[in-house]
Amino acid sequence: MKVTTKERRVGIDYALIDLSKNVLSYFSAPQPTSFKGFGGGRGGAPEIPLGYGDVVEVAIFEAQSGGLFIPSDAGSRPGNYISLPSQTIDRNGTITIPYAGRVPAAGRLKETVEQDVEDRLASRAIEPQVVITTTTSRSSQVAVLGDVNNPQRIEISPAGERVLDVISAAGGLTTNNIETNVTLQRRGKTATVAYTTLLKNPAENIYVAPDDTISIDHERRTYLMLGAAGTSGRFDFEESDLTLGEAIAKAGGLRDDRADPAQVLLYRLVPKKTVAAMHVDATRFTGETVPVIIRANLRDPATLFAVQQFKMEDKDIIYISNSDSVELVKFLDIVNSVSSTVSGVTDDANDTRNAVQDLGN
């Protein structure tokens, strides 16, 4: 690994690093964040508590008629129970049950609230059993935003929905999934993964939870190709793991008549700590990043393997230098042009002098 950081007579100082097998580990693809830190990757769906604004129905069963709710003359009534009118969990987080009063519900599981109501009625009803049914769950919703066909709030069920489930429920992606990121926000914590990662790694496709926000964003990643390439310009990655070798090939490779295979240069801003880890003196650089030029000598077979493993990053710049023979031809063209001009001027001067002499005669 060759590293050069001498002072140069240019506006921006930089470090020059020759690409080799040893360099690859320092420039490996950045580690993305993960959804696995939120939990919910394995096991069953998370339990969903009742919440503010949920609409619930409460049914109260008694062991026999003649109790608090079931009169003794109930006759052929199908079952010893009553259904209370639907009610909304109010802003205080409670529901109202006759003879049980205002019962806290928001933030509690249905089973817990059912047991609470049964305990409150135990001294007055005959072996009461309570069943709570959620008819509208306004608190158990997930917001899906961004580049989907139908952005909306989606209600999640007790069966559980995963990230890909709610994206599908929102109509799926409107963009190319290769360059699409999925961001999950939950209780002040945020993580972003590539959409392709969700497809490839089931552990990332976790269960969503109430009040999650999922944002889908298309991120166009590009690089610039300059110099003696088949085609110069800006190119889209169009794939998740583009390598330096693939980026060169995408631009038409090196021009046989101009390019110097030993001088393929990649320009990138690299974190200062990464440069320091390569035992490069980075104290001269004041910022958090260091301008780095990575030089690939494609005449070396080992480097050909390295460029196929070196991962490109967004906004990288590749410059393919001209060969020395091309520079020599350019120099000779300039010399010939100057010589032709001087010769032409001399001939014109001689012609003018002869014309003047003829006039004098």
Q: Examine the coordinates and then state which fold CATH places here, giving the name of the CATH topology of the largest domain.
A: Outer membrane lipoprotein wza fold like
Strand order of the largest sheet: 1-2-17-16-18-14-15
Instruction: Please state the structural category.
Output: alpha+beta
H and E string: EEHEEEEEHEEEHEEHEEEHEHEHEH
- Overall average pLDDT: 84
CATH superfamily grouping of the largest domain: Outer membrane lipoprotein wza domain like
The value of Rg in angstroms is 37 Å
What is the annotated CATH architecture of the largest domain? Roll
The number of helices is 8
Helix content: 10-25%
CATH class of the largest domain: Alpha Beta
Q: Could you describe the largest sheet, including whether it forms a barrel?
A: 7 strands, mixed
Strand content: 25-35%
What number of structural domains do the residues give? 3
Describe the protein's architecture and organization.
The N and C termini lie far apart (79 Å). The chain is of the alpha+beta class. The mean pLDDT is 84. It has three domains: 112 residues, Outer membrane lipoprotein wza fold like, CATH 3.10.560.10; 89 residues, Outer membrane lipoprotein wza domain like (Outer membrane lipoprotein wza fold like, Roll), CATH 3.10.560.10; 82 residues, wza like fold, CATH 3.30.1950.10. The strands form four sheets. The chain has a seven-stranded mixed beta sheet. It has a five-stranded mixed beta sheet with strand order 10-9-13-11-12.
